[in-house]
């Protein structure tokens, strides 16, 4: 039977790879969303012919509407338009590959609509993990991770019972600056940062991989998805990005998932689960690989990794504050307003100013803390 999916963040790195999977697997896409890139959205809409497309940016939505005036594709606008598109879609799975906090409302709308959520947008869980997970449980919605590490853990968890888990092993490539000291990190440029050694990704996550903030967010994401405390989640530097993560069980067995780094496998698995189907991704040649290496992360040169654990344990809106400050700091770095070494400074200074965030419980409290953290972080940029 043909599967119908919706793709959110279709014009981005994971979004385009999701569309590629749909082409190869023959899934129908009846709704997709994008941010501002109306030219690419038009090209995709003409190829895919979905029932509807939503653009987050109002001006881009108006432009797309004009571009598609000779078609029957319905164009929706803004965050509300994305959420309406999800509710009106006949898709049984929604791939959420939106970048940043903007992915949260669509995550909640997908759960509300009772559709399977193939989740790449880790920020949904970083910002409001307890709310998202409890809402999904209440609605009986399955959240299948698309993030490669979490997909690997999800797959490895089939080998045992939750009570038999000793720890989760979250692998990290270490990014382009692995082995550099704090002092050496002071002279890093934007071009150095965007050259990731193993994965080709969007710019924001590429910078987060270089600061290890991404791995910190992944600790929080894993804690929510799998109900495992960050105390039992160990980050291991694995430069080759072949073991995508693993689970260690109480009998000392380590069960992991190995493959070449290719997000299309993760998207496909999340949509087809529990089935496995042939993939267009290249197979792993173990003889060509030869060996794999593992090392401990340097948390003094890359302090944001431990910040994420602290934020998780502090609770409330603390992880949301971390995410908000990081979104502001990375955007400023990408515009070359601050240096690489300033990113952790902006994030940690903002975090320290927001002590009260731990008491936030409701979604509106969390969103208020997010807004305040952005304001404070902006103040450190000028
Ligand atoms: P990209 O920057 O490549 O793409 C982001 C997508 O989100 C684009 O379609 C963009 O639209 C859209 N978007 C941006 N802002 C908004 C907004 N305010 N409202 C709605 N849509 C918006 O990001 P990635 O694909 O790299 O990452 C997406 C998510 O997947 C992130 O959460 C990331 O952490 C996660 N992820 C990414 C991986 C990767 O390999 N790239 C691996 C694992 C997880 P437009 O371009 O039209 O403005």
Short description:
This protein is an alpha/beta fold and 382 residues long. It has helices spanning 13-25, 38-48, 58-67, 78-88, 104-112, 123-139, 148-156, 190-193, 203-211, 213-226, 263-272, 286-289, 304-314, 318-334, 342-353, 363-381, and strands at 4-8, 28-34, 52-55, 74-77, 93-96, 116-119, 143-145, 165-172, 233-237, 243-249, 254-258. It folds into two domains: 4-145, Rossmann fold, CATH 3.40.50.720; 150-262 and 279-381, Rna Polymerase Sigma Factor, Chain: A (Orthogonal Bundle), CATH 1.10.1740.10.
Poorly predicted ranges: none
Question: What characteristic shape results from the CA principal axes?
Answer: globular
Can you write the helix and strand succession as a string? EHEHEHEHEHEHEHEHHHEEEHHHHHH
Named once each, the bound ligands are: NADPH dihydro-nicotinamide-adenine-dinucleotide phosphate
Largest sheet: 7 strands, parallel
Which class do the helix and strand fractions yield? alpha/beta
Helix amount, in percent? 40-55%
CATH superfamily of the largest domain: RNA polymerase sigma factor, region 2, helix turn helix motif
Q: Which CATH class of the largest domain applies here? A: Mainly Alpha
What topology, given as strand order, has the largest sheet? 4-3-2-1-5-6-7
What is the count of structural domains?
A: 2
């Amino acid at each position: 039977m043909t599967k119908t999916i919706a793709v959110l963040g279709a014009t981005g790195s994971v979004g385009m790879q999701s569309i590629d999977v749909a082409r190869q697997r023959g899934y129908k896409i009846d709704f997709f969303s994008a941010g501002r890139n109306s030219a690419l959205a038009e090209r995709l809409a003409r190829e895919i012919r979905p029932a509807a497309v939503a653009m987050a940016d109002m001006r881009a939505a108006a432009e797309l509407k004009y571009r598609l005036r000779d078609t029957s594709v319905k164009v929706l606008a803004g965050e509300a338009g994305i959420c309406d598109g999800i509710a009106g879609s006949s898709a049984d799975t929604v791939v959420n590959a939106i970048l940043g906090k903007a992915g949260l409302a669509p995550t909640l709308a997908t759960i509300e609509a009772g559709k399977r959520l193939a989740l790449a947008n880790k920020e949904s869980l970083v910002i409001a993990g307890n709310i998202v997970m409890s809402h999904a449980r209440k609605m009986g919605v399955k959240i299948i991770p698309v993030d490669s590490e979490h997909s690997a853990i999800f797959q490895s968890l089939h080998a045992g019972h939750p009570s038999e888990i000793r720890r989760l092993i979250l692998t990290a490539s270490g990014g382009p600056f692995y082995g550099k000291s704090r002092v050496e990190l002071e002279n890093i440029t934007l071009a150095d940062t965007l050259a990731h050694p193993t994965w080709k990704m969007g710019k924001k996550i590429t910078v987060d991989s270089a600061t290890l903030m991404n791995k910190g967010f992944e600790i929080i994401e894993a804690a929510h998805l799998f109900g495992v405390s960050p105390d039992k989640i160990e980050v291991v530097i694995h430069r080759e990005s072949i073991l995508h993560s693993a689970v260690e069980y109480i009998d000392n067995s380590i069960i992991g998932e190995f493959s070449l780094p290719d997000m299309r496998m993760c998207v496909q698995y999340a949509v087809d689960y529990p089935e496995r189907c042939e993939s267009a991704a290249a197979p792993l040649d173990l003889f060509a690989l030869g060996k794999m290496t593992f090392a401990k992360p340097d948390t003094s040169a890359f302090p944001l990794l431990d910040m994420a654990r602290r934020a998780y344990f502090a609770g409330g809106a603390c992880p949301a504050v971390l995410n908000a400050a990081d979104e502001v700091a990375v955007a400023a770095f990408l515009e070359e307003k601050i240096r690489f070494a300033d990113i952790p400074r902006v994030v940690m200074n903002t975090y320290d100013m927001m002590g009260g965030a731990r008491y936030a419980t409701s979604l509106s409290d969390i969103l208020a803390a997010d807004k305040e953290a952005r304001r404070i972080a902006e103040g450190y940029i000028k």
